[in-house]
């Protein structure tokens, strides 16, 4: 009979559920409220080993920091608060219920702890972080953890995007922003309280000359056309090259095809990368595949591969001038050509 009672008691004890991490956190909170900080810390240490949920871990470390704060152990309190922010960068203490000194320790840690923020945009734009300039996109920078306000805006202010972002400690947070056309106040109400036109208002009068987007796009790109002339720097007396080209432009990319009509006929596909230097100035590099009619006996067509680098300046948002230097290596027939080209490039307004 005695053995049966002992066996029943053991089975009953083994059937009792163990405290989970959140259950131990509740017990620790009760012990903390009673002022038994040692018992609370014992339960909190056990709770840490029993859960992997980041929100629960953050609450555990917050209470752990309060326990050490009550014991006047500021170093361990700060270490616990740091762990709380690593699990939840938005972790907070209620200043109406918690020692204000501990609240200050937590907020000071939030400002000092950092993570990396990487921002990419679908068109050239300047990025700001809580109202402070971060740089032109794409940009990567260390910033303080927690929730922040992020904004991207084109140089002419025509396209904008904004969002809220939470930065985690010791991690990289990547944000892809799609810019949309901004709604201007003067467009909706061009002259509030008056009948005449608003002085200095209107989009044409205020937009700086910069490459803006076009409402018409083809395959996601902005159509463009250019007219260019080129000379051989080693033979200025030769007939200059003359080409007209058509293509598409995307953020940081450009592709086009050019028809040559002087001094010979031919076609040159081009593709390249461009980067904004200022609102009105760009630098770019291109690869080209010239296929030209040849004057060499027995070789009717000259085929080569070339590259060029140059700069582009915007007079207004749809008209720019450019100049570049390039080198072409022709395989059929075999020769090398150096060119200097300049011209005008048009885009849809």
Description:
- There is one protein chain.
- With 349 residues, the chain is α+β, with helices and mostly antiparallel strands.
- It has three domains: 16-112, Serine Threonine Protein Phosphatase 5, Tetratricopeptide repeat (Alpha Horseshoe); 114-181, Sandwich (Immunoglobulin-like); 222-347, Porin (Beta Barrel), CATH 2.40.160.
- Helices cover 27% and strands 41% of the residues.
- It is built from eight helices and 17 strands.
- Strands 9, 10, 11, 12, 13, 14, 15, 16 and 17 form a nine-stranded antiparallel beta sheet that branches. Strands 3-2-5-6-8 form a five-stranded antiparallel beta sheet, with no helix packed on it. It has a three-stranded mixed beta sheet with strand order 4-1-7.
- The longest helix is centred in the N-terminal third of the chain and has 17 residues, at 54-70.
- The N and C termini lie far apart (97 Å).
The averaged pLDDT comes out at 83
Q: Are there runs of 5+ residues with pLDDT below 50, and where?
A: 9-19, 185-190, 192-212
Tally of separate helices: 8
Helix content: 25-40%
Give the tally of structural domains.
3
- Rg over CA atoms, rounded to whole Å, is 33 Å
- What's the architecture of the largest domain, going by CATH? Beta Barrel
Q: What CATH first level of the largest domain would be assigned?
A: Mainly Beta
What fold name goes in the CATH topology slot of the largest domain? Answer: Porin
Secondary-structure element pattern, one letter each: HHHHHHEEEEEEEEHHEEEEEEEEE
Determine the N-to-C terminus distance: 97 Å
The biggest sheet, with number of strands, parallel, antiparallel or mixed sense and barrel status, is: 9 strands, antiparallel
Query: How many beta-strand elements?
Result: 17
Secondary-structure class: alpha+beta
Coarse shape:
elongated
Please indicate the percent range of residues in DSSP E strands (runs of 2 or more).
35-45%
């Amino acid at each position: 009979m005695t053995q049966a009672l002992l066996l029943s008691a053991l089975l009953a004890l083994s059937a009792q559920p163990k405290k989970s991490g959140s259950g131990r956190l509740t017990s620790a909170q009760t012990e903390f409220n009673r002022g038994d900080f040692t018992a609370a810390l014992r339960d909190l240490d056990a709770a840490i080993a029993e859960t992997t949920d980041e929100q629960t871990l953050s609450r555990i470390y917050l209470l752990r920091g309060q326990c050490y704060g009550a014991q006047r152990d500021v170093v361990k309190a700060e270490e616990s608060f740091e762990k709380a922010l690593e699990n939840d960068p938005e972790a907070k203490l209620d200043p109406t219920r918690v020692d204000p000194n501990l609240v200050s320790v937590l907020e000071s840690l939030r400002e000092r702890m950092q993570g990396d923020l990487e921002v990419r945009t679908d068109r050239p734009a300047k990025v700001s972080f809580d109202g402070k300039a971060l740089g032109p996109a794409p940009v990567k920078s260390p910033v303080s953890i927690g929730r922040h306000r992020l904004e991207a805006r084109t140089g002419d202010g025509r396209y904008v995007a904004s969002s809220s972002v939470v930065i985690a400690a010791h991690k990289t947070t990547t944000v892809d922003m799609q810019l949309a056309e901004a709604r201007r106040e003067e467009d909706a109400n061009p002259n509030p309280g008056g009948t005449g036109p608003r002085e200095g208002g209107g989009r044409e009068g205020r937009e700086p000359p910069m490459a803006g987007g076009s409402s018409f796009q083809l395959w996601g790109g902005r159509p463009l056309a250019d007219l260019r002339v080129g000379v051989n720097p080693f033979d200025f007396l030769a007939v200059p090259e003359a080409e007209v080209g058509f293509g598409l432009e995307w953020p940081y990319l450009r592709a086009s095809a050019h028809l040559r009509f002087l001094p010979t006929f031919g076609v040159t596909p081009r593709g390249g990368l461009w980067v904004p230097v200022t609102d009105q100035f760009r630098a770019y590099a291109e690869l080209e595949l010239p296929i030209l009619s040849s004057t060499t006996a027995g070789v009717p067509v000259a085929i080569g591969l070339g590259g060029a680098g140059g700069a582009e300046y915007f007079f207004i948002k749809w008209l720019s001038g450019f100049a570049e230097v390039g080198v072409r290596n022709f395989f059929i027939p075999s020769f090398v050509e150096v060119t200097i080209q300049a011209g005008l490039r048009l885009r849809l307004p």
